[in-house]
Design brief:
The chain is built from 5 helices and no strands. By secondary structure, the protein is mostly helical. α1 packs antiparallel against α5 and α4 runs antiparallel to α5. The two termini are 23 Å apart.
Length: 134
């Protein structure tokens, strides 16, 4: 499995967790999400983003961009802080704050995927890829 395949697999799993978060944040009429639900789901997103980041850096893409590792770590830290805020909002039963924080959480995960894609660089079409059989 290539690094791009690994990243794609992490993103797909992350999408299902993000969908669950959207559904939890829009629950109405006494169906407020619990802090445990929010915590488990945000933890899963953070784990997928962290695994994808490690895959990008392990493949050596960080060597072309020496600041990539600390920059991605700061992004993961911000994602974790947003998750903590979401859990606190769920514990307090504050639906408006929960929706706002989860919107920011979604923007942060999107930013992480964007940075990872930039660090990996453009995909080389198969026709243009150098031949390795020589």
């Amino acid at each position: 499995m290539t690094t791009d395949d690994q990243i794609h697999a992490h993103q797909l799993r992350c999408q299902s967790y993000m969908l669950k978060l959207r559904m939890l944040s829009s629950a109405e009429g006494g169906l407020a999400p619990t802090a445990a639900e929010i915590g488990c789901t945000t933890a899963a997103v953070i784990a997928e983003a962290g695994a994808a980041t490690r895959a990008v850096l392990a493949a050596g893409h960080g060597r072309r961009h020496p600041g990539a590792s600390p920059f991605l770590q700061v992004r993961l830290n911000r994602l974790t802080a947003a998750a903590d805020e979401a859990i606190a909002a769920a514990q307090a039963g504050d639906a408006a704050t929960l929706r706002r924080v989860l919107c920011r959480f979604e923007a942060l995960i999107s930013a992480i995927w964007t940075v990872q894609a930039a660090v990996r660089g453009p995909a080389v079409p198969a026709k243009l890829a150098p031949r390795r059989d020589k």
